[in-house]
Structures are given as C-alpha cells and as structure tokens.
Request: fold
Amino acid sequence: MMSELLVLHAVRLKGFADTAAVAARFGLEPAQTEEDLLDAEAYGLVSRSVFADLAGWSLTERGRKHNEALLRAELDSTGARSVVTAVHDRFVPLNAEAAKAFTAWQLQPARSPETRTTHGSETGRSPETGRSPDTAHSLGTAHSPKAGPNPGTAHNPESAHNPENGHGPETAHSPETAHNPENGHGQQNGHGPDAEAGRRPDFGGAPHVGEYLGALYRLADALSSIEGALTPHLARFGGYHARFARGLRNAERDPAWLTGIDVDSCHSVWFELHEDLVATLGIVRV
Reply:
C-alpha cells in the first residue's frame, strides 16, 4: 500500500512526469515503479500521454480521489493529522510572503541591454571582474493550467498558479533534475541546516538579484523548521529544505534557479510543498 501511495502521490506532485522522474521523487526502484504505473493505468488511476518527444504520466480524476483516500488512511494510521494541520496553519502566512517575493522578482523592470546574456536573461556585472554570472535559462513564464501539460513544464492541472493562491507562473522539474538523496530529494530527512544553507551568496555586483533573496532566505529558515516538524511523522516530507537551499545557492550563478521552469527552482520546490500539504489534508483549492 505504501508503494502505491508513493507512486500515485509522486505523479500528483509532479503533475506530469515520466517513469524515471516518478520513481526518483521518493527514491523508488524504477522497474517496480513502472509495474505499479502500468497496474494503476489498468485500473484507470493514471493515464500516459505523449507530446512530441515528451511522454509522461498524470493522474485521472479517479486516481486523484484514490490518492486522497490513501493519504487520509496514512494520516489516520500515523496519527499525524493534527501535526500536518498545525504545519499548514504556519505555512499559510509564509506562502503569502513567498508569493510576494516570487512575483516581485518576475515583475521586475527590464534591465539595460548590456546586462543581458545572449539568451536574454537578466544578469549583473561584477565590479571586480566586469563579467556577468552565467545564465543559461530565462526566468519562468506563465501558462494556462487548462492548456494541458507543456513539454517544458509539469503541473497540477487543477492548481492555478497565481499570486492570489500563493504561486506565480508554473514551474516544473525537468528529467535532468533527478530527485535523489545526493541532491536533496527522496525520503531522506533533509531538514537540518546543510553546509551551505545558511550562506548568503555574493552576487558579484547583481543587486537586482540579491535584493529579492532576503525574504527567500528567511523562508528557507522557516522551511527547515516546518520540515523538522513533519518528517518524524511522515518521512516523505523530507528533502524540501535541502532542495530550496540548493536553489538559492545556484541562483548565485544563474537567476533561473529562483523561478525557472526547467530546473528544480526555489519556486517549483515551494509550489510542490504547498501541493503536498493541501493534498495530504484533502483541502480543496478555490
């Protein structure tokens, strides 16, 4: 039953993902995960879709309801409902802060041409070196959740990502950003401060990046506490803090790690935690 819960829940959190990404989310064995997904497909719980060269799994409405039933049973068997409810209550005001920080970054005024890379991403130049940080990706852009899975994104079709519900433009994890213990994913605890989590980066003369990160570092500290409260009861909540801290560190060289759609950005991690909490508690978003 635990394997079934984790497979279906991974699909829900990812929104749309291939078998490898579903298995990696909770450190599951890929071959067994594929069998579980095929069984779930036979029961009408998941469906497989192909878009150009991208193929992946998503939950059906029946699968969503079954996933929620498994999550309710998990809360009852672990006695963790009151803990998760209390954490969600703490999370709500933090989510408002996160929405404000992410939206402010995404809506910042355009920079002058000399501060852009050949990809069009905004960067800052170091007064010491005169060079700008490498920026391989442009920042995340919004798309309608009703448009279906986008080859570059994975999302929850029923979760609109906008400032009113605590999210900016949708983000996703690409197959390249595998979720494993080495990069802060999977079922490891991950909530203790790691060697880099408390470090405030030097952005090399890019204050337009740094000025948005103060709030995000405060959120990272709060996230560590939240994860520490959850994981003794539900180990599957492990890894969020390590992933978020990793995004902040990587933003030092590439601002796409703040809200980018093709990396495991801070925004995508935050959105996934929000979805995890509301799914676990059976909260219906309006």
Notes: The first strand starts at residue 46 and ends at 51. Strands lie at 46-51, 54-59. The CA atoms of residues 200 and 206 lie 13 Å apart. Confidence is low (pLDDT under 50) at residues 110-207.
